Known about the structure:
The protein is of the alpha/beta class. The protein is 31% helix and 24% strand. It has 2 domains: 6-57, no CATH class; 62-254, Rossmann fold (3-Layer(aba) Sandwich), CATH 3.40.50. It has helices at 40-44, 49-57, 62-75, 95-102, 115-124, 142-149, 169-178, 201-210, 249-254, and strands spanning 6-8, 23-27, 32-36, 85-89, 107-112, 131-134, 155-158, 184-190, 215-227, 233-243. The protein has a 7-stranded mixed sheet, with helices on both faces. The protein has a 3-stranded antiparallel sheet with strand order 1-2-3.
Amino acid sequence: MNKRHRVQFPKTESIDSGQDESYFYLHGTSKKRKIKFHDYDEIYQVPGLYEQIFYDRLKCTSPSKVTAILESSIKQSNDNFTELRVLDLGAGNGLMGEELKKHGISRLVGIDIIPEAYEALIRDRPGVYDAYYVEDFCNLSEEKKDEIESWQCDCMVTVAALGFGDIPTKAFVTAFNLIKDEGWVAFNIKDTFLNTKDETGFSKLIRELIFSKYLDIYHIERYRHRLSVDGQPLHYFAVTGRKKAHIPPEILESKGIST
């Protein structure tokens, strides 16, 4: 069992401040370190720290919520949930993979850009994934693309990693296009990303997808993703749908979506 770490949150955090700017202090034997919530490379190097911050203290529910609505959506079809071959984009140290495994998913392929995520996975959750790739999906070689495609994934999930620059628009599209047509897609996004006032590339892409021929939406649900540092609820949308076609690169250019 991982030891408990001495963690201190700042006294106040504006609900309007960017989530990617949130931070905490980790107290060590001689000094304290300031670590941003999105400094995953640093967090993953400390066993149990990610879980302590986001799940124990801030009550993140997203892996279980996204898994539940994906399973519910598939029950509306003729597909079998446990037979899915899942591509987990932004897999991190395997929390989403572990949740899917609990629900009987048979094949899991993890993807992350951070080597420390893979190292944490091997340390904390070995055996969850059938394969795990540390790759930049904005610059994926044809050889590696073919290798990942050979897993014949028919579902893509990505949880708590979209819209803050962790996974660029181009990387999401690359992963989306790797899964089979009629495959399933499940993800979550901060509720403000569906606001038309949000002009970021990812927000534009998601709005385009929801009203497009590329994705057939089955379920959208607003829910409490986790708490903020000062105890306020942070709301996200969980989305599931069925892929109908590849997203062509020109759609990004025509809509002015930055990659």
